[in-house]
Amino acid sequence: MIDLRILVLGTGGTIAGAAGSATGGTYRAGGLALAAMLEQLAALGLDAQLVPQEIARIGSQDIGWPQWQALHAACAAAMDDPAITGIIITHGTDTAEETAFLLDLTLPTTKPVVLVGAMRPADAVGADGMRNFANAVKVASDRQATGRGVLLVMGDAVLAARDARKAATSAIDAFRGFPRGPIARVTPARIDWFAPPHRQEEPAHYAFPDSLPRVAILAAGAGMDEQPVEALLGIGCKGMVLAGMGQGNAPACVLGALARAAAAGVPVVRSTRVDEGIVDRNVEVDDDALGLVAARALGPAKARVLLMVLLANGITDASRLQAAFDGG
Ligand code: GLU
User: Over the stretch 76-106, which tens digit does the pLDDT of each residue have?
Assistant: First the structure.
């Protein structure tokens, strides 16, 4: 039997949140130190040895470049460390999909990397964090968890980073997957995968950048005009993601302004404000004529992450950008 040694990178979030009352309505995300969390976990009698490393103790709405850099560096080092068999990242749920996808794009698939969070603070009645964490340990300990990219464990479901999205503000089963739903079901005792690993021994898709360019999400609304596009250009955006209506639509004047931005070297990706679905090229919007990119299955938050990584890697041409958004 292999010795399981899992690096646990703590960032905060509700899983490390403390309310000070089991029934209170307010709490502070990330109030609990990682060491205190792991002490509680020790009582669960998990099979793996957990190696803690605290990156931050914050709500994930405040996560950004410094924490992403630290997380990537720690994961990359653990990938190269033969003593580490898997990685768990405790994370707030608000931006878990962004961190998971950024790491998914920039890490090899040779060891399991599992993000886990919670919807209820650690001291709330019916807290879900400990179970989610025990599930994450089960996933990170499983040989079949490698070769699938970064995974997100919430509730008793395992989602692939590219599919995962937060879909509810406070429900326990707050995450959905699109186009795939959960790729496994997990409990602290058992895990069932629904398909074999499809990304065995893959190197990182993209180099982790030295910095990330400013890319904004523009939310479309009925009756809007093109001035928000001009304003985003005015603050030096290097790329834009449209959270469009329906199939990534926007009023004609907005599309015109976005086409002008694209022609001026600021790539524009059309995504949708709709919960899920594919935004295809050239359906109602003539992407070929306007020089725009269709986000396909990626919602606005993950489309922004991919666009930032692509631009940082020097990929700016609309057809190459489209190929990356089309790719699995
Ligand atoms: N907003 C906080 C965060 O994302 C708490 C939400 C949560 O973790 O569920 O960290």
Answer: 999 999 999 999 999 999 999 999 999 999 9
pTM over 0.90: yes
Regarding the beta carbon of 60 and ligand 1, being less than 6 Å apart is answered yes
Q: How far, in whole angstroms, is CA 327 from its chain's centroid?
A: 17
| Opening angle at CA 106, ends 101 and 110, nearest 5 | 100
| Cα-based distances in Å from 220 to 209, 223, 241, 245, 300 | 29, 9, 10, 6, 11
Give the side-chain half-sphere CA count within 13 A for 280.
3
187 lines ligand 1 (CB under 6 A): no
Active-site residue 90, yes or no? Answer: no
Ligand 1, atom 8: closest residue by C-alpha: 92
* Interval between CA 28 and ligand 1 midpoint (Å): 9
Strand partners, 106: none
Contact 312 CB / ligand 1 (< 6 Å): no
The answer to whether residues 112 and 145 touch, using CB atoms and an 8 Å cutoff, is yes
pLDDT of residue 125: 92
Cβ contacts of 89 within 8 Å, gap of 6 or more: 8, 9, 11, 71, 75, 99, 103, 113, 114, 115, 116
DSSP string of 133-159, one letter each residue: HHHHHHHHT-GGGTTS-SEEEETTEEE
Asked whether 272 lines ligand 1 (CB < 6 A), one says: no
Q: Are strands 239-244 and 215-219 parallel, antiparallel or unpaired?
A: parallel
pLDDT tens digits for 249-299? 999 999 999 999 999 999 999 999 999 999 999 999 999 999 999 999 999
